[in-house]
Structure formats: C-alpha cells, structure tokens
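User: I'm curious what two different proteins look like when written out as structure tokens. Can you demonstrate?

Assistant: Sure. I'll show them one after the other, since each token string lines up with its own sequence. Here's the first protein:
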Amino acid sequence: MTATLPAAAIDARAQAAYRWACAQLGLRGAEFAPASADASFRRYFRLTAGGRTWIVMDAPPPQEDCRPFVHVARLLRAAGVHAPEVLGQDLADGFLLLTDLGTQTYLEVLDEDNADLLFADAVAALIRWQRASRPDVLPPYDEALLRRELALFPDWYLARHLGLRLEGAARLAWDAVCDRLVAAALAQPRVYVHRDYMPRNLMRATPNPGVLDFQDAVYGPLAYDPICLFKDAFLSWPETRVADWLRDYWERARAAGLPVSTLARFLRDANWIGVQRHLKVLGIFARLNERDGKPRYLADTPRFVRYVVEAASRYAELEPLLRLFEKHVLPKVAR
C-alpha cells in the first residue's frame, strides 16, 4: 500500500506525523487524511490501513502540550468513560496515536427526536466521570482562573470587537458582577470538570458517547459541565427542555451519591456558572476573530448574548450585567 500524501496539500508536520504513526503501527503505508481541527493549534488526522482506522494528533510545541491530554484520557478511561486510548506518544514532537471513536459527533446527529436518548447517555458518562473525582489530581478551577476567563469578555468582546471600554461606574458594576460570579462558582461542590462537555466534543459511538477535547479539564464547580452540555455553543434548545434535562441530571446525580444540593440551589448554580462560561466564550470567539483570523466563530456570538440575557434577567444580583447588555451589546448585535 502506498501513502496518500499529496505533497502540495499536506505540510511538513503532517508528513512527519504520518511517518511517525506508520512506524508506531509497523505499517509500510496507509491512507492519511484530515479528521478535524479545533480553535487551538491542534489538528487531527485519520490513518487507514487494512480495514482499520486510527487518529493521529498533531499538537506542535511550544504552542501545545500533549501531557494533559494523556493524563486526562487515562482518568476518563479509568472512570469508565469512552475516551480515546493513547496507543503511542512523542511528547517532544507533539504527536499522539489514538484509537478512533468514529466520524459522527453529537452536533451532527442531534435532533428533536433523538435528543433525550443521546443526552441520557451523555449524562450517564458525565456522572461516571464526576464520581471518580479526587482533589489534587487535576488543576483547580480557582479564583485566578475564573477571573482570567471573565476578563476575556471586556478585553476582547467589548473592547476589541465592539470598541467599548468599561470605565467609571460601568467598570465598578462589572467588577461587582465578577465578584458575585466568582464567589458563586467557588461555593459549589467540586468535581472533575471537562470544561467543553458539549455536543461537538461527544461522538456517537459504542459505548455511547465517545468523549473528546478534554485536555483542559480541571477540578471545580459541579454544575459547569451539565450547563455546558445543554447550553451549547452551536445548538440551542427551548428553555423548558433545558430545565427538564437539568432536573434529570440532578435526580440521577443525587441517586449516584454526588454532592448535589437542593434542586433550586443546583439550578441557580447551573445558571450562574453558565453566565461565567457564556461571557468567557464571547471573549474567546472575539479573540479568535481579532487575533487569530478565525471569523467563523462570530456567527455564534448572538447565541451567547441571548444566553446571558436570559440568565441575568432571572436574578436581581445580576441586574447590572443585564443593563450593560441592554445598553451596549444588544443594539449592536441587533444591527
């Protein structure tokens, strides 16, 4: 078998990754094609030979570090979650050889009819992951990280994308909202947090789901991953359906012995940590456009604006954030 590697289409790093993966598997040649890419510097290729497939990750140093991926993959699999097995690694060059979890993401197959079933599988896997949690194994989702993420919103979405700098009373109001969001996050029960547990990173697989893009996992707020699953970056659901799914998660988490509080407190925790995430994502999507030349993510920013407004309108403590959006953000999004 000869390699499918057109020199004009694939760069030198991809060719090096291909040769390395073939050597790991003892292959003289194989088909090699892009499998996916994400918002970081990481890329994924699918290697095919003899009716079998593997995934090759290209994570170029010094921009990327493969070690967290390897570490978290091991934790997920130990918890009984269907994550890729690391079959080979070259940490110095930034190459990993992984088992292939398939070609269909939840984002590609979810619809009104199958959402309950697919999300039930996703919740079951999430609860297994959370039940395996132990302190001092993953980096903490601490105050410093929460504040760095929140700062992405005024720095990139407001200042760089909308041309608005918060000053005076507006800045004081923003700082007060941040204090409340951070305090609420730190008061939650703490578990392993994937941080991007959303349909784009879940594969329809056997067992279902396959879980990807977990290298940024931390130890932090219990409600983070559930709200991330149902308030997706690229797919929206009616509020009543989201509430039903959150209630189902809460019931199953409580039955599994996870440290959930009352349903009312859990829903508040989910909404508040959801606001923190939505603000962070608005900043990240703006940064991808302004700094990295990746404008396609901007098309989904109105979804997150809507998420923030919906959540902030429910809580008097978040009214300053609602006013900020109504005055400065909604008019520009509408245009």
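Here's a second, unrelated protein for contrast:
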Amino acid sequence: MNTAIASLQLLQPSSLTAALKMLRDDGPLTPLAGGTDIYVGLNFGTLKDRRFIDISPIEAMRGVTVRGDVLRVGALTTYRELIESRVVNRLVPMLVAASREIGAVQIQNRGTLGGNVANGSPAGDTLPVLLAADALVELQSCDWVRKVPLRDYYTGYRRSVLRRDELITAIEIPAVHGSQFFRKVGTRAAQSISKVVIAGVHGAEVRIAFGSVAPTVVRVPKTEAALASGASLTEAQEILQTEIVPIDDVRSTAAYRRRVAANLLEDFWRSTGRGRAGFPQK
C-alpha cells in the first residue's frame, strides 16, 4: 500500500450506541464498513482520512424488513444480501438489478448499500434506483433520528447533509407502484464504473433518475412531466438535454454521455410502456 498503516487509527465500538458516542466525543472519525471504497483510496494514497470507526459488526444496522408499506434496508446490508432477498426481489427488483452490476462477487459480498450512499459518487449504481424510488436516508446521532429524502441529501459532488456526529443507519423505500427499470452503460456489465446509469418507475407517475451526468445523481422532472403529459419521445429527449450536465473524463466524453442518456430514456419508455419491467439480461 502507498499509505503507512502505522499512522492510521481504528476505533471499534461494541454497539450502535457506542459508535454514536465515539462520533460525538472522539471525532472526526470516518465510518468503515465494507471498505470497498476506502481501501482503494488508501492503496492509491489519495485518502486524507487517518482516523476510522469500524461499524461493520453492528447488527442493528443490518437486514431487510417491511414496516407497513415501507421497505427498510439496514445501511450495512450488502449487495449480495439484496440480490438474495426475496422481499427486495418482489418489491424493488430494480435495486436487485443494480446490485448485480456492482463489481465482482467479492465486492458484492462486502460492499454495503449505506456505503454507496455515503460515498456519494454520481456514478454510484444504486443511487439512481433509490432516487427514482423516492427513498429516505435515515441519519442517527446520540440525540436524534432524522430521515432525509435522497433528493435532498446531496449538496454537491460527494457532499451531503450528513453531520460528523451522525451515521447512515438505514434506507427506507416506500411502496413503488408501476413498472421498474434499470440500465447501466459501462466498459463492462460489471467491475467497471458506469458511463451513464438510469433507473425509472412508470406508473401513475413517471420518475426517472440518472447517474454520471451531473455532479450528483439527478432526477429529471421536466423530462418526467413531458412524458407524463403525452409529449413525444423526441421532445422528451430534447428536454432531457437541458437537465443533465455531463463532463468529459477518462471514461467518456460529455457528447457520448448525452447520446447514451437519450437512448436510455427511449429504452426506459419503450420497455415500461406496456407494464413490463426492464432489467439487464443475465
């Protein structure tokens, strides 16, 4: 590794309560769970953080439950657990589709949903799904629990409303009504960062979210409204171009991302127009 391990400090709380007290009294601390993002930064020497708190053993932050019409996913739930969950497959199959596209089996076994939210990369594969599903991010400190809609969670590139004394403890997804859709375009189907990723819901309302086309994952409300009001697909694609701001980088060009986003919008609309869910074929 390019980082001297001896300079790092790792705190290991025995419970959620203990972890929250450490964040309040001993911070700033960087939460460490699956480590699939943090280890990369440490290896390349790009991570400035030196003090970590290991939250991986906290069972209170794991698991999938249904409360009323709300699906609650603990922040430490892994992609593998999402893929294998019958409840998630039944209620939010687009989240399963996204989880299958993340990394290799090793990453799926270690990486967590809460970690993907915390990392905040605009290319995060599960984030468009959660945004299209109107998910809430549960944040907990020693003194309160608050729930923030994902649409309000990010304030900029890899920045959010999360306070230093808070942990992401769960993601809540209300009942999703309508056909669900997910597509990722990358160098490969998995083990690659997305060039463009889309998730959508087509029911009584239209909800569409994109990743890798702006500093954060984004909804496209003008495009949604156009499709819902009966505008042509061509008109909706033109409107879409005004709602995304892709960039040129080492993975792709802005022009390519714009073309792909328009094509994915067409794919979404045609795939879900007759009540069908659209997911990558395995």
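A detail about the second structure: The chain has two domains: 61-174, 179-272.
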